[in-house]
């Protein structure tokens, strides 16, 4: 079987994401981790490596339902992948247990935005109606059709925080899955992908949420030891450290 048959763009994911290693380019299939795919395509393991984010260089890249993409989103791992980005051996992919779930893949981009001295971070928050608590996370969101990854990142940062960013550097790509039900009770098999960047702002000021009525309700500069950073997720410390190194702060 042609390996490309296993990695076709998912029709339920409107914006396919591609992985390149040398001259080989494959779409990231539903539930497939991009770093794992890069390794399988022969990318070398290099500590601290991160993929290059390319756009508009694969004019013949096929999209969902056979459509041709004018500005495909491509992660180039030709120079290597960081071994710590590989998924845990015990969970190499998603195991779907739901009966006939709807498959949905979403490609997004987020950033660890640091102050000039590297001691403060920009976070965004929204109110989780299910748990009735404030949920804090990294600024960013889904990529719109026709956008490149950097364009989406700049738009999301402005909409959610009112900040422009400078010197953005890609640091890693996160891939995760979730199985459950949608708000209307339909079984769903969800695959999330996000390109993470390290970035600074030309001027640190009070954040402003421009996308009123969207998912983000607030934004705030916080210290590195803020519980919303240190206690939210175990991977946050790794993300922050990699971002600081990428920006020459660590």
From TrEMBL:
Keywords linked to the UniProt accession: Hydrolase
Record family assignment: Belongs to the Nudix hydrolase family.
InterPro entries, alphabetized: Nudix_hydrolase (IPR020476), NUDIX_hydrolase-like_dom_sf (IPR015797), NUDIX_hydrolase_CS (IPR020084), NUDIX_hydrolase_dom (IPR000086)
Species, as recorded: Kytococcus aerolatus
One GO molecular-function entry: hydrolase activity
PROSITE patterns attached to this UniProt entry: NUDIX, NUDIX_BOX
Annotated ranges, domain Nudix hydrolase: 104-244
Protein name per UniProt: 8-oxo-dGTP pyrophosphatase MutT, NUDIX family
Pfam family, one: NUDIX
